[in-house]
Amino acid sequence: MPSLTRIAALILLLIPLPARAGDMATVEILGFSADGDVFAFEEYGVQDGSGFPYANRYYIDTATDSFLAGTPVRVRLEEDGASLQATRQQARQQGEAIVPGDELNANKGHTAGWNAVTELTANPHLMAVLPQPAMSPLSAQDPLAFSLEEISLQGQEFCSDFGQTMGFKLLRLGTAEGQEAQMIHADSGIPSSRGCPLAYAIAGVQTFYPPSGTPVFAVMIAIEAVGFEGSDYHFIAVTGRL
């Protein structure tokens, strides 16, 4: 028979908590350029507080893990009645001049792993995957593994009113005997575009094997930051070569 403590805990789980509105962006993997040199993704949603729809498109050089010139593409329609669809369409049109959408769509790659920000059972700071599903026997593949470490960093001055702001380090773990972990990203400061970040999680791993050239990966990082009406969730990516 369940103990009174367990019953009380279950009752607490069933009690509805006060809703905290925030901006939880929807993320969509757009794909890679045909040669794997560029990775692109979009995040979109409705900004909390203002209610304005926005769409951001990120185009990243996979060799240098840096944004392409003229990117990210950021569109926010600051007018009453503006639709999210129209906002995304404007961002899509601007992105066509960077890498055509048809090319990205034809080279989606493989979502080797994914954890939604609402997932409670997964480890937010560790993800290990097999990089591709069928190109070779699964048992013969070397796993691809990453770990994330949150680090305390000074954010913008006003952020101190909301608690400790955080940056992160991302390591690619050695999965073969004698293979050492490799640091692939380490924040030295917090970019203003992140606002006041409080926590990070590994959201997913996307891989791509171009017909010719070096296979590449993109690690999607979810950022929890202070919002106007609650926590905001947005995304960045760290890229590299397999």
Features of this protein?
5-stranded antiparallel sheet, mainly beta, 4-stranded antiparallel sheet, 242 residues, single chain, 13 strands
Summarize the structure.
The chain has 242 residues and is mainly β. Helices cover 12% and strands 40% of the residues. The strands form 3 sheets. Strands 1, 2, 3, 4 and 5 form a 5-stranded antiparallel sheet that branches. Strands 6-11-12-13 form a 4-stranded antiparallel sheet, with no helix packed on it.
SSE inventory with pairings:
Blueprint lengths: L3 H11 L11 E7 L5 E9 L6 E9 L4 E2 L5 E4 L7 H13 L4 H6 L3 E5 L11 E4 L14 E9 L13 E8 L8 E5 L10 E12 L7 E11 L4 E11 L1
Antiparallel strand pairs: 1-2, 2-3, 3-4, 3-5, 6-11, 7-8, 8-9, 9-10, 11-12, 12-13
Describe this structure in words.
By secondary structure, this protein is mainly β. It has one domain. It has 3 helices and 13 strands. Strands 1, 2, 3, 4 and 5 form a 5-stranded antiparallel β-sheet that branches. Strand 12 (216-226) and strand 13 (231-241) form a beta hairpin. The longest helix is centred in the middle third of the chain and has 13 residues, at 84-96. The radius of gyration is 20 Å and the shape is globular. The chain starts with a helix and ends with a strand. Mean pLDDT is 89; it is low at 1-20.
